[in-house]
Each structure stands twice: as structure tokens, then as C-alpha cells.
DNA sequence: TCTGGGGTCCTTTTGCCC
DNA sequence: TCTGGGGCAAAAGGACCC
């Protein structure tokens, strides 16, 4: 509610601002993976800790603030992070624990409002319009969430409160860690314009350098650039989008359930691979995994695509649309293998392969041609039996014979259950 | 510095039909 | 018959996000 005073944007958790109309909350866990990992390793508290894959090619998933001080940040190659902060403790990710903690915090959010839009395991937008009567103003709700999450899950989070998703997100980033920031409706432009262009959602390394080439360094610079200039430099869609954001215009609303558009899996080999048999086996494993996830979610997909990344990091994709949607691993694999064979590669050095299924719809609503696909029915029945066995005996209890022996070259052994 | 794995969205190219 | 081009969908690539 309005408190009469209108402070400057101020420091994290600054003086109370007018939160009327600020119905969007963005909640972001602080160093989520690292914080959750510390719950079971309390002796590491206060020390620089890096969460990341153990392999030589991993990247940093998350790091505690003690490690960030040394320049470590997520997505940084592990090698480099270790060099920057040799004293850091490196722990392997524990996805089950992250998933559990995520569930817990999302439940806290849903106790406030059903309008919760998860962005990832560790962040979400909330529309708190309907919760005011029960719980008070947006700031109050934000503070309640912060306290409750810390109380129930033992980890801290930061909350941005604003009139739009995009400003709420910037606000939570601004008050990190363990903070809350309200950007009052009347102060949006003053909040935005001093920020560097890279702060905008959708401006990464490439776009930033294009903008720098135009002499644009702050959000304010973008706001005062003719729309036609932005459209020419970045394309019509991105240009318009950035211009709108620079003035704080963001029409996107909080949506609780966004349907999946694609489901896939990919794997970077421990070392580059040039043996076609190894690639084929990996495509099979990824196809089975992808199809199993489709079946588990009751969905089917119509387009199968593969991704191949070569040793020099160049990446290509190939896709084929099927006459009929599928959730059958064998169909996905046959298609993927066909796409791969059509590349005509001869002992190319391959770093990564991936399989993805697009054009997703609900299995129940997908049209199905009875006359076709009798073989697929056989495969589907077999795979559903595997699904049942996996539920009873654990993932990986049953799998294709070619995947049984994990002692082959490259890749992760397929035995790691999730 | 040597770059994961899960995705979304946008742009450009290509093939097809009329 | 050849050529052009509009309109469309699919394919391919790439930037970006967490």
C-alpha cells in the first residue's frame, strides 16, 4: 500500500516504496543448487563451494557467494573456475534434492496464489492480485514468502515486486542475495534507464555487441533510439521487443500452465567420438529416454530432430516430420538414425549428439490412423511394459540389449538412474 | 577460456503449390 | 513451355535463458 514517501530506487531492500499496482512477484532462489547442496553438507557453510559435473568438460551449475567473489559464476567451464578459485570445494549435483526443494518452494508459492508460473527449478513469477485481501499488499506477501521459504526449506531467496514480469525479474536480480525490492509503478523508467543493455531479457553477448556498435550502452540509450534503427540492426521482432522493454512496456501475463513445445535429451561425450557404432548406441539411448518422458507425461510428438556437435563446436540439426505423432522409442530412434545416416559422415569427430521431439500434443487428443503402424503398436506395448518395470524396479531395470554393457567407449554409462 | 543440458523464440532458406 | 512470384510449411541455424 502507498506509504506516501517516494524514495529513490536505492539499495537492495531499500526504503519502502509504493507497491500499489505491483501485482507481479518474481521469486529467485539464491545460488539455488549450491544452497541446497549445503543443506546436507553444513560443514561447508562459509566456504567457497562450486556445484558442477565431475568430468573434464563440465561447467559450473552454481556457486556460493564465497566462490563468486573470485569471479566464479554459473555456466563457466569447470577448468576455469578451478583455476580462479583453487581452494573451492567442488560437489557433484544432486538433482533429486533440487527437485524436492523446488517442489517445496513452489508449494509455498501456490499457497499464496494458483497463478504461479515456474521458469525453472529455482524461480517463478506470481500474480498476487487475488491474494491481497487474505495476505496484504505485494510487499507483505513477498516478505512472507521469503520468511516461509527460509523457514521450511532452509534456503534464502530474493523477490522482485513490480507491475510487469520483466521489471519484477530485474528487481529480484538487483536485490540479490536475500533481498526484496519494490519498483513502484511511477519509477519504472527511472529504474530501467541507467541499467546496462545486457540487463534486458533477451540481450546476450551477441546482441550486446551489436548494440555497442551502435553506441548504445544503457537501457536509456535504447529507449531514445528510433525504432527503425533497432529493427534494422536486430530484426523487426527483437527491435520492437527491446524498444518496448526499454520503456517498461511488457504485456506478458503470468500463466500457470504452459504446455510443452518439445522434449529431448542430449549428451556430450567424455571425449570426442568417431566410431559410428558408439554414436548409434547413444542415439538409441537418447531416443528411449525422450520417448519414455513423452509417455510419462501422456504426450506424443510429430517431428523428430537430431543435433550433432563436432569437435570444433560447430553444430548442425536435422529434422523430419512423421505422418503421425508418436511416443514410441523405436520410432524416434529409427527416425533419428535415418537423419544421422543421411549426413553421410565418415569418421567425423563428434562431441555431442542429441534427440528431440517437437510438435507435442496430448496423447489422448492426437489423431491416430488405425490402419497404419501395427509394428509401432507392438513396440508401444513392449515399451509400456518397460515403463511399468522401471516404476517397480527402478529406471534402467530393463533396456535394449545394445545398451546393457556400459563398458563401451565414451559417454556416460547408461546405468545412472535419476 | 574452451564451452552442459534442458528448453524457447526468431530469422532465413528451401521446397512445394498455384 | 518457361518464368515469376505469392503464400505456406517445414527445415535449419542461431541467440538466448536458467
In short:
This protein is α+β, with helices and mostly antiparallel strands and 418 residues long.
- Mean pLDDT rating: 87
Helix content: 25-40%
| Number of self-contained structural domains | 4
- CATH C-level class of the largest domain is Alpha Beta
**CATH architecture label of the largest domain:** 2-Layer Sandwich
Strand proportion, as a percent range, falls in 15-25%
Assembly type of the shown chains? single chain
Mind explaining what this structure looks like?
The protein is α+β, with helices and mostly antiparallel strands and 418 residues long. It folds into four domains: 24-31 and 97-189, Reverse transcriptase/Diguanylate cyclase domain (Alpha-Beta Plaits, 2-Layer Sandwich), CATH 3.30.70; 41-93, MutS, DNA mismatch repair protein, domain I; 193-246, DNA polymerase, domain 1, CATH 1.10.150.20; 262-417, Dna Ligase, domain 1, CATH 3.30.1490.100. The chain has 15 helices and twelve strands. The strands form three sheets. Strands 5-6-1-7-8 form a five-stranded mixed beta sheet. A hairpin with a 7-residue loop joins strand 2 and strand 3. It is globular and about 65 Å long. Residues 1-14 and 406-418 have low confidence and may be disordered. The chain binds a DNA duplex (18 and 18 nucleotides) through residues 52-53, 55, 57-59, 61, 74-77, 79-80, 83, 119-123, 201-207, 235-238, 260-268, 303, 305, 313, 315-321, 352, 354, 356.
